């Protein structure tokens, strides 16, 4: 493994050697052990600017890309101001993975499709010309079909950043919204839109919103340590018993993490009665185009979104 000392050097080594960048290594190591990749890995330099959580003078919060997922969960400032993020981060994987994994690595990890992760199959993602999952076994695949690849994006943290309208900093490129980091999902060869040598250096969160409430939940096939079949996160602000602001996103449903504006539009300006919440959650399914083995996810998406809306309304507000 190469260990350059600067970001420029790391980018150059990747380009010159057809290598790949490595952050915490949880995904890279798994793909290497499984025979999915034999490319050399280049460790992102462990620079101070890539670590830590800092509140800025304008009220925003900057998080270095190499900050550990466990650090996100435990930070009092993030817990107080950004509960959607900390609750999402705290639910993913296992304590060991949260300790080893990084913010940037979680955002840029490769998808978990069984066929892509099996060296005996070839697909669009590894340079092939088809999607064996589409005609094969695909119960964990997308329920919103964005294009040739039906593997859901695996980043839980991405959906939390979507509802916060967060931005990512890319070395020598500038700032992107989280939505622009992933695009529309139509390119089956990529899980994000960064070039191999581009380095994500930080995430910036807007200032906390006093009075907002947040919740996260996932549906999984076993008690813990499993990739979600569907997951959702919500931020809700209620004033005088009327929803004044809401942001909802879901994962496990498409090739990219997705905001759900249909849900948001169905809630803003209304009293959050059980009937209105159910109607809003049902709106989450409007874009669904399920595959033969993912039809069950339509109802699962509705129920998961309903759950996070109900929990968010009931949770204590940010102060």
Features:
single chain, 319 residues, Enolase-like, domain 1, 5-stranded antiparallel sheet, 4-stranded antiparallel sheet, 13 helices
Fold and architecture overview:
This protein is of the alpha+beta class. It has a domain at 212-314: CO dehydrogenase flavoprotein, C-terminal domain (Enolase-like, domain 1). 33% of the residues lie in helices and 18% in strands. The strands form three sheets. It has a five-stranded antiparallel β-sheet with strand order 3-4-7-5-6. It has a four-stranded antiparallel β-sheet with strand order 8-9-10-11, with helices on both faces. Strand 9 and strand 10 form a beta hairpin. Helix 5 (83-91) packs antiparallel against helix 9 and helix 12 packs across helix 13. The mean pLDDT is 93. It holds the Pfam family CO_deh_flav_C. One of its GO terms (molecular function) is oxidoreductase activity.
Entry summary:
This protein is of the alpha+beta class.
Helix percentage range: 25-40%
- DSSP strand tally: 11
- Using the coordinates shown, work out and report the CATH topology of the domain at 212-314: Enolase-like, domain 1
H/E series: HEHEEEHHHHHHHEEHEEEEEHHH
> What class would the helix/strand composition place it in?
alpha+beta
If you average the pLDDT, what whole number results?
A: 93
Find the CATH superfamily of the domain at 212-314: CO dehydrogenase flavoprotein, C-terminal domain
InterPro entries: CO_DH_flav_C, CO_DH_flav_C_dom_sf, Diverse_Substr_Oxidored, FAD-bd_PCMH, FAD-bd_PCMH-like_sf, FAD-bd_PCMH_sub2, Mopterin_DH_FAD-bd
Pfam families: CO_deh_flav_C (PF03450), FAD_binding_5 (PF00941)
Domain FAD-binding PCMH-type: 1-210
GO molecular function, one term: FAD binding
């Amino acid at each position: 493994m190469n260990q350059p000392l600067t970001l420029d050097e790391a980018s150059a080594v990747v380009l010159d050697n057809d290598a790949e960048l490595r952050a915490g290594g949880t995904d890279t190591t798994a793909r290497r052990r499984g025979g999915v990749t034999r490319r050399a890995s280049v460790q992102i330099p462990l620079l101070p600017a890539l670590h830590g959580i800092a509140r800025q003078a304008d009220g925003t919060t900057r998080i270095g890309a190499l900050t550990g997922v466990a650090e996100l969960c435990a930070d009092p400032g993030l817990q107080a101001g950004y509960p959607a993020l900390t609750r999402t981060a705290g639910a993913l994987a296992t304590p060991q993975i949260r300790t080893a994994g990084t913010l940037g690595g979680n955002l840029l990890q490769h998808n978990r499709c069984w066929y892509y992760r099996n060296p005996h199959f070839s697909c669009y993602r590894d340079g092939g010309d088809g999607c064996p999952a589409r005609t094969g076994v695909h119960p964990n695949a997308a329920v919103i079909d964005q294009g040739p690849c039906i593997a859901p994006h695996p980043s839980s943290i991405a959906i939390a950043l979507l509802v916060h309208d967060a931005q990512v900093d890319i070395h020598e490129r500038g700032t992107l919204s989280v939505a622009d980091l992933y695009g529309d999902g139509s390119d089956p060869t990529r899980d994000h839109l960064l070039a191999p040598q581009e380095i994500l250096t930080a995430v910036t969160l807007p200032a906390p919103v006093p009075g907002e409430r947040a919740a996260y939940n996932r549906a999984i096939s076993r008690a813990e340590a499993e990739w979600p079949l569907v997951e959702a996160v919500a931020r809700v602000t209620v004033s005088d018993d009327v929803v004044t602001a809401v942001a909802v996103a879901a994962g496990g449903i498409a090739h990219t993490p997705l905001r759900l504006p249909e849900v948001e539009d169905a809630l803003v300006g209304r009293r959050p009665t059980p009937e209105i919440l159910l109607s809003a959650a049902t709106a989450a399914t409007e874009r669904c185009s399920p595959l033969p083995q993912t039809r069950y996810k339509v109802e699962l998406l509705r129920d998961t979104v309903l759950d996070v809306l109900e929990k968010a309304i009931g949770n204590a507000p940010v102060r």
